[in-house]
TrEMBL record:
It comes from Rhodosalinus sediminis. The keyword Cell membrane applies. Pfam families: Cyt_bd_oxida_I. Belongs to the cytochrome ubiquinol oxidase subunit 1 family. Keywords: Cell inner membrane, Cell membrane, Electron transport, Heme, Iron, Membrane, Metal-binding, Transmembrane, Transmembrane helix, Transport. It comes from the Bacteria. GO terms for molecular function: electron transfer activity; heme binding; metal ion binding; oxidoreductase activity, acting on diphenols and related substances as donors, oxygen as acceptor. This is Cytochrome bd-I ubiquinol oxidase subunit CydA. It is found in: Cell inner membrane. The chain crosses the membrane at residues 20-43, 55-72, 92-117, 129-147, 190-209, 221-239, 391-412, 424-447, 474-495.
Length: 536
């Protein structure tokens, strides 16, 4: 890969975004888990739940602060590295980000302060409400950001204005309720819930292995397993909904994910494994599950899913249609103030394909002068890298089903087997702590890499979106970002490890006294509930 301005800009934004997303899932999930724990505390008045809320809340706070720092930096890159993108679609893309900053982020940031410093100034119920508002703010932030991203995947509610040479919003309602955005939101937040559940489960398992903070760990495992099982099941279901949405909004991405080179007679099979060969347009050694892809992608046994070769041919046709729109657009620019209705009508009739004509800008300055060979090259560019998408998607799916199995096991052990966890199972819980982040990063890779060569699907090619920067500028800033984020990552890990090793240190005396009374009461009444202390 040649490291030109476009590729370096992509690399820098990818590094920034994927690093930022190391913090987002844990923030989304821990905010809900902490709110659940405080709700139990308010309902039961048991100090152990207050101690749990403070402990996991501290880890949430560390993650939240570093997530905010990396998120702000990422948003500045739209103006620094992607200035033409910001100019071309800023009217639409900027609206959800503005709402996120004005509503969700300020809601979240305000109540985070009250959560940490309001324990002795608010009543229990008031503080519980604050905890839920923090969780609500975190999830609202994700909603508006994913609405913006969802519009890039499926640009609805907007139209190109030939007078301003920009995309303009035509329906805020359509942008907000974009089916891709809504599917991405529920799938992403569910993945965040799984991430937090696995994190809480793993840390709690480590405490049990070390014989420390046993009561806190047992209760935390119960919450994490119950919450995590529901979240893991929803991730799979909601992920399936995202795939169904891609069937009619991002057909090329779906075909590339499945390495489906030719249109298969309905219902199409699902390729479980194989070796995609993009040069030969073939998948070697593939193992297929009959009918599965047809059911997943179309919810039917009669609808076809188009293959890559057919979609490439469609792209070539759309490029030719887009050239008609491009030619009309150039005439409109030349005849400002004297645009005939016929010229306007000609442009409007083909404007949906204008972005495809822009793909030719990589090969010829004036797309109208493109040869058939250049049109064919531009059409081929609409095929993303098949092998990386194919394996990234399968890695994400495999991890998703593995989380269901792990959470189901700990749910059963916690609720029906007297909280008895074999040591190998506890070590497994510790070992899988990093895996939700791997799954989340794979998911984002599929979403963003699969959209290439578009910044806004079918509207604006990535090659046209960048700022006029030099390779040297980008190399220097990329090195700076990598260094800065590496330092932040070390700080995050050091703080997390420090506070996990220290464990819950607040309200210790009150909690220990309550635990003594609680243990005596359980043994006196032969308690056998999930929180009962096993007999010696």
């Amino acid at each position: 890969m040649e490291l030109d301005v476009v590729e370096l800009s992509r690399l820098q934004f990818a590094a920034t975004a994927m690093f930022h997303f190391l913090f987002v899932p844990l923030t989304l999930g821990l905010s809900i888990i902490v709110a659940i724990m405080e709700t139990v505390y308010v309902m039961t008045n048991r100090p152990i739940w207050r101690q749990m809320t403070k402990f996991w809340g501290t880890l949430f706070g560390i993650n939240f602060v570093l997530g905010v720092a990396t998120g702000i930096t990422m948003e500045f890159q739209f103006g620094m590295n992607w200035s033409y993108y910001s100019h071309y679609v800023g009217d639409i893309f900027g609206a959800p980000l503005a709402v996120e900053g004005l509503m969700a982020f300020f809601l979240e940031a305000t109540f985070v302060g009250l959560f940490f410093f309001g324990w002795d100034k608010l009543s229990k119920v008031q503080h519980m409400v604050v905890a839920w508002l923090v969780a609500l703010g975190s999830n609202f932030s994700a909603l508006w950001i994913l609405i913006a991203n969802g519009w890039m995947q499926n640009p609805v509610g907007a139209a190109f204005n030939p007078e301003t040479m920009r995309m303009e919003m035509t329906s805020f309602f359509d942008v907000v309720f974009n089916e891709v955005a809504q599917a991405k939101f529920v799938h992403t937040v569910s993945a965040g819930y799984v991430t937090a559940a696995v994190f809480v489960l793993g840390v709690s398992a480590w405490y049990l292995l070390k014989g420390r903070h046993v009561e806190l760990a047992r209760r935390s495992i119960t919450v994490a397993a119950s919450f995590g099982l529901a979240a893991a099941l929803s991730v799979v279901v909601l992920g399936d909904e995202s795939g169904y949405s891609a069937t009619h909004t991002q057909k090329m991405k779906l075909a590339a994910m499945e390495a489906m080179w030719e249109t298969h007679e309905a219902p199409a099979p699902f390729t479980a494994v194989g070796l995609p060969d993009q040069e030969a347009r073939e998948t070697h050694y593939k193992v297929e599950i009959p009918w599965a892809m047809g059911l997943i992608g179309t919810r039917s046994l009669t609808h076809e899913i188009p293959g890559i070769n057919e979609l490439e041919a469609e792209s070539a046709d759309r490029i030719r249609e887009g050239l008609i729109a491009y030619d009309a657009l150039m005439e409109i620019r030349e005849n400002r103030g004297a645009v005939t209705p016929e010229l306007r009508e000609r442009f409007e009739a083909h404007s949906d394909d204008l972005g495809y004509a822009f793909l030719l800008k990589q090969y010829v300055e004036d797309p109208r002068e493109a040869t058939d060979a250049q049109i064919a090259m531009a059409a081929e560019d609409t095929i993303p890298g098949v092998a990386p998408l194919f394996w990234a998607f399968r890695g994400m799916v495999a991890l998703g089903f593995a989380f269901i199995g792990v959470m189901a096991y700990f749910f059963v052990q916690a609720n029906f087997r007297g909280m008895r966890f074999p040591r190998p199972a506890l070590w497994l819980a510790v070992a899988i702590i990093p895996t939700p982040w791997i799954a989340a990063e794979l998911g984002w890779f599929v979403a963003e890499y699969g959209r290439q060569p578009w910044t806004v699907d079918g509207v604006l090619p990535t090659a046209l979106s960048v700022s006029h920067l030099s390779v040297q500028d980008l190399l220097i800033t990329l090195a700076g970002f990598v260094l800065f984020y590496s330092v932040l990552f070390v700080i995050e890990m050091a703080l997390m490890v420090k506070y996990i090793r220290r464990g819950p240190v607040e309200d210790v005396e009150e909690t220990e006294k309550w635990m003594e009374r609680h243990t005596h009461r359980l043994r006196t009444h032969d308690g056998k509930g999930p929180f009962a202390t096993p007999a010696e």
